Amino acid sequence: MTIKVRAPGSCGELVQGTINGVNFLITCPVDWYSEVTVVPGGSMTSAEPKAAAAVDKTLKYLYAAGDFGLVVESDLPVGKGMASSSADISAACQAASLAVTGRRLSCDEIADIALAIEPTDGIFYPGIIMFDHVQGKIRRTLGTPPPINIAVFDAGGEVDTLAFNDRQDLASLNQAKELQIIQAVELVAKGLEIGDARLIGQGATMSALANQAILYKPCLDTAINISRDFGAVGVCAAHSGTVLGVMFSADAMSGHEACIKEICRACPEVAYLKTIQLIAGGLIITGDDGSECG
User: Which residues form the GHMP kinase C-terminal domain (predicted)?
Assistant: First the structure.
């Protein structure tokens, strides 16, 4: 049986920072995917070292061995804060477990394996979650998102996840913005609870602005001001990456294309990538029964 496991990427995070010194993010899963296919008797290519590490750690966790390889196919940009590595790693963990034991790993098991490789986004959990991406201390489900479209822009360059999280000044900079981050969490959590896209956008915007002292994004203020003129509910950002996203509720999409053009005109230093949808996270498995991990 051919097993395919698909994991969503992200448009950065809805919120990221610390509370009482504990790292966390609120996931921002989107319909832009990495897919891993089990290949009987094949081999893992050296071009996918993190997926290969995920397979190795999964087999050790299961006390198992298997004669198979994986093909990793992904359109997610690398080094941009779109959870490309987390998508590859989580899909590879699940694919390896299914190939060898026929058992689905729980999302918590995948998280533990992934965190042993690098700081990890929680996009493989169903819904939207608050997740400690460094040590896994926080794993709190917040709900499912209302319809929101995100126009993704890239400020350029790449950010290395490991190097970013090893910054010596990161803890103190996160501590300095904790009050704003607590407020942002409250807005996003309430927005998810009652299905209010505007509250989610307000919280995401607050977190994106608070992160400017840690990883500055050119044109963020300009993009926020322009997007408001076109009815956007807010702006999300990759707190350890280069992308930012302009968020539109379903009833505000009439201004979407004009907003993109105006941001591109006013901010030539950023590039528009594509428009995607905020979704409930989770792994999609085919060759099995096609449902998410849980």
Answer: 190-250
